[in-house]
Amino acid sequence: EAGVAQSPRYKIIEKRQSVAFWCNPISGHATLYWYQQILGQGPKLLIQFQNNGVVDDSQLPKDRFSAERLKGVDSTLKIQPAKLEDSAVYLCASSLKQGTYTEAFFGQGTRLTVV
Amino acid sequence: AQSVAQPEDQVNVAEGNPLTVKCTYSVSGNPYLFWYVQYPNRGLQFLLKYITGDNLVKGSYGFEAEFNKSQTSFHLKKPSALVSDSALYFCAVRVPSSGGYQKVTFGTGTKLQVIP
């Protein structure tokens, strides 16, 4: 079974530039999550999709972050414009569906450095 | 609001000795508890979960965890540590939210260092 795919693995940008991350979840997984993991901290949920609908984006800085999952499969997370404090690892995860107490499967993450 | 606490930033243990990584939680309602491990430059990997039933759950790589409702704890344990167990460990709690979906909260992580 293929895992969660993320790209790119690493990205370095200057502040005020824009950046986009891509995630392809495990086939058949209806729920997709984007997490931000700052060095030394636990993952913080940015946005959660159920199929192509957003179920939780309460911690997403909507003035600069956006995410979409148009066809209910792969997803993109965008930051525009980036700030220094956005430097972190961005993790994508997927799980079977809501209502089942299944674990999430994580991709390897994208390490973003904003300089 | 739900929360998870991992009181130790780092745990050091000698190879072959038993290890414990602590986790306590605070939720309103029945918690569903998870442990994940993160190796350097890798995503999180699922180790084990408690949903209901037996308070002692067994997971991958010889790890187990004990759910203690009265102490609101879910400590991760292994009888004999290996050097390869050295990694970052995250506890997570998942509860139904008012919106009808499952909300997951992660702890801040505990770095486990197994000393040869």
The N- and C-terminal alpha carbons of chain A lie at a distance of 37 Å
Report the structural category of chain B. mainly beta
Gross geometry of chain A:
globular
The major pleated sheet of chain B works out as: 6 strands, mixed
Unreliable spans of chain A are: none
- Count of separate DSSP helical elements of chain A: 0
Helix content of chain B: under 10%
Helix fraction bin of chain A: under 10%
Could you tell me the strand content of chain B as a percent range? over 45%
Give the distance, in angstroms, between the N- and C-terminal Cα atoms of chain B: 41 Å
Structural class of chain A: mainly beta
Number of helices of chain B: 0
Number of strands of chain B: 12
Oligomer: heterodimer
Q: Report the β-strand fraction of chain A as a percent range.
A: over 45%
Q: Could you tell me which chain pair has the largest interface and how many residues each side has?
A: A-B, 25 and 25 residues
| Morphology call of chain B | globular
Estimate the mean pLDDT confidence of chain B: 91
Mean pLDDT over the full residue set of chain A: 92
Largest sheet of chain A: 7 strands, mixed
- Please trace the helix and strand order of chain B, writing H or E for each element: EEEEEEEEEEEE
Features:
heterodimer, A: 115 residues, mainly beta, seven-stranded mixed sheet, four-stranded antiparallel sheet, 11 strands, globular, B: 116 residues, six-stranded mixed sheet
Task: Please provide a brief summary of the model.
The complex is a heterodimer of chains A (115) and B (116). Chain A is an all-beta fold. Chain A has no helices and eleven strands.
Give a description of the structure:
Chain A has strands at 5-7, 10-13, 19-24, 31-37, 44-50, 53-56, 65-68, 75-79, 88-95, 105-106, 110-114. Chain A is mainly beta and 115 residues long. Chain A is globular and about 40 Å long. The model of chain A has no long low-confidence stretch (mean pLDDT 92). With 116 residues, chain B is an all-beta fold. Chain B has no helices and twelve strands. Chain B has strands spanning 3-5, 10-14, 19-21, 24-26, 32-38, 44-50, 56-58, 64-68, 73-78, 87-96, 102-106, 110-115. The chains are: A mainly beta (115), B mainly beta (116). The A-B interface holds A 4, 33, 35, 40-45, 48, 50, 55-56, 91, 93, 98-99, 101, 103-109 and B 32, 34, 36, 41-46, 49, 51, 90, 94, 97, 99-109.
